[in-house]
Amino acid sequence: MAIKYRIAKVKLNYLEEKPEVYKVQQLTYPVITENALIEYISRSTNLPKSTVLSCVTAIGQAISFFVINGHRVSFTAFGAFYLKVSTKVAKTFDECKADTVKKTTIGFQSNSELTDLARRVEVQKQTTLSVTE
Amino acid sequence: MIASTTIQNQSKGAIFFYPKKQKLGYLEEKPEVYKLQMMRCPVIDRKGIIAYAAKAAHVPESTVALAQEALFDAVNYFCMNGHSVQVAGLGSFGIKLNSKVAKTVDEANADTITRKYIRFFPNGEIREMCSLKNINIKVNNLLNLTGENDGNG
User: Fold this and answer.
1) Domain segments of chain B: what residues?
2) Whole-angstrom Cα distance, residue B135 to residue B125?
């Protein structure tokens, strides 16, 4: 199955002449909600929905617990979750303190297999839609 | 003296940093500056997560392992088919395309796509937990890995 895209007209307002250009835009597919995902996993594993929900929630909580404590959580067949930190530079050693940390968030890095799979996904133009603005 | 960078983080929610000297090579004068670097904690693998989740959910480890494998297979399957997937307690995964701009409609086609990747977007709860106000940042100045004199001999 291919991912569909459309051509969208975009105005580059950050340039002085504000040119109009065209860009490939991915079409929005239905979101797989948490309930739909639990149901799918329950059907594929023959586990009760309540058990799947407990497991999935606990896995999510486990990942976030370890990441906020500075650990990198790695799944060989999927990818790794880690704490992403952005910091400011300091001119001297003494200025380099905790307040130079600007932002912390959780990041995800897919493994080579997943990255390769994503790269090989087919794309197809949605022929029924015209150029959108 | 270079000390080990791997430590076991004992304190809940505390992240340890150390100052590291860097040269900004992209500037003409190439100034030397200091930047905080996060100290590495041991990597947690699949087994560690399964053990933790099994205790939290009061479910056998084999069940959690089965659910975990099915979870990531499902995320993989739906993402490769273009869907965004919401995972409870974590966030959402989806496949994203990066593309170059084209001057004409005819030039805008699949060849302008420069990158396809899986993007993760943490949910509000996780973003809040990982935000600066909830994380205890500790700077270890004694662990001077730059080799400079830190005033303690």
Assistant:
1) 1-43
2) 14
